[in-house]
């Protein structure tokens, strides 16, 4: 009798999943609804990633910084060891520019330390991500991708669950990209200053996309036309390229 009940329960669950996975369209034909990935809550609390001298910089690059169009940057800008910063003006910098001075050089050392810290984090309940994370809601903790990540086919939400001190760290083995118009959304008290994207190669943000958090990229960071960043764009070895963007250090 118990065995029969278990089979019926399993059948009922499968039926619910099947019904939920379909939606009626106006012509009466059913089609698959988006499949939502369940992100488990993590119990391991991650500490902050110390930014040191890089904390005051909205932009930091290794080889060059360039801009076209009416970019607005709020926060300091640094370059080390490169020597080329172009496009300001017409870009507007509300902050101080540092080229191979003591502040820029120290910021680069501290960026390397912060990058290594974020990349080296471990947890027993780390969550693995892959491919497109658009449509997901991430809660505080540590996330890892063994390849590239993209925010496409939907926005991604960070939910701090009412804790404004909650830390989010996303380890990405290769590239980070967003498609045009995609957004990073904050909820539950989440702060851009507590989100750290450790990018194994380069990051590219699509036109008019809205991104949040500190981007720690091994190589370069490119913001396409109209992209907005609330956080920091910090590139260790390559360039930071802007085109009519708004970047506010948080």
What is the arithmetic mean of pLDDT? Answer: 88
Low-confidence stretches: 1-36
Biggest sheet, open or closed, and with what strands and sense? Answer: 12 strands, parallel
Distance between the termini: 61 Å
Helix content: 10-25%
Percent strand equals 35-45%
Q: Which structural class do the helices and strands define?
A: alpha/beta
- What is the gyration radius calculated from CA atoms? 21 Å
C-alpha geometry: globular
Features of this protein?
single chain, 250 residues, alpha/beta, 2 domains, twelve-stranded parallel beta sheet, 38% strand, globular, disordered N terminus
Description:
The protein has 2 domains: 2-32; 52-248, no CATH class. 15% of the residues lie in helices and 38% in strands. The chain is built from 2 helices and 25 strands. The strands form 4 sheets. Strands 3, 5, 6, 8, 9, 10, 13, 16, 19, 21, 23 and 25 form a 12-stranded parallel beta sheet that branches. An 8-stranded parallel beta sheet has the order 7-4-24-22-20-17-14-11, with no helix packed on it. The chain has a 3-stranded parallel beta sheet with strand order 12-15-18, with no helix packed on it. The protein starts with a helix and ends with a strand.
